[in-house]
Amino acid sequence: MILDKISDQPLSEEKYEQRKKDAASENTDSSIELTKLQNLGYCHKDFYSGNILQDEGFSYVSDFGLTGPADKQKSNDKIYGVLPYIAPEVLNGEPYTLTSDIYSFGVIMAELSTVNPPFYDRKHYVSLALDICNGLRPEFYKELANKCMNANPKLRRTVIELNEIIIFWDNSIRFIEENEAETIPYDIFVEMKL
């Protein structure tokens, strides 16, 4: 995760059409990067699309200024990050955890699926924070993103589960594109628990 100079812009600034086309691979790259961070036992605490950089078709997580060991996260009554991506339990005064980053990943998935920033049509005021705590989530169509944004941190997916599911989706999409199949072979359909 040590980065050379990245030539492209953050994911949040990528052009609409390109984001729509590359959503699956961006989710894959981001989940792999988040897996690396969490496998080291670290919590990012500011995981949002503006901290995912693009370079030559790959996504990289950046801005580790708030990152710290997951087992040493303490609530100091300060909330850091970009409001729509902050987990409800953090907004309610709980410390940041690995599952807080999973919530943020779910918001990023929703953003990529709709190609709009979360709550782009609302001011980021206290009322938005209260609405998030009361269950407001960005519009999206993916069940997995919803599971990532579950208000109960214990019911969120792990980063390893996310990584496996997203890589499966990405591989399926690539298979279909490479084979330009009019119909999908039966064996491509593998039941995966979301």
From TrEMBL:
Residues 1-168 form the Protein kinase domain. Transmembrane segments: none annotated. SMART domains: S_TKc. Residues 12-24 have a biased composition (Basic and acidic residues). One of its GO terms (molecular function) is protein kinase activity. Residues 1-28 are annotated as: Disordered. It comes from the Eukaryota. InterPro entries: Kinase-like_dom_sf (IPR011009), Prot_kinase_dom (IPR000719). It holds the Pfam family Pkinase. This is 17618_t:CDS:1. It comes from Funneliformis geosporum.
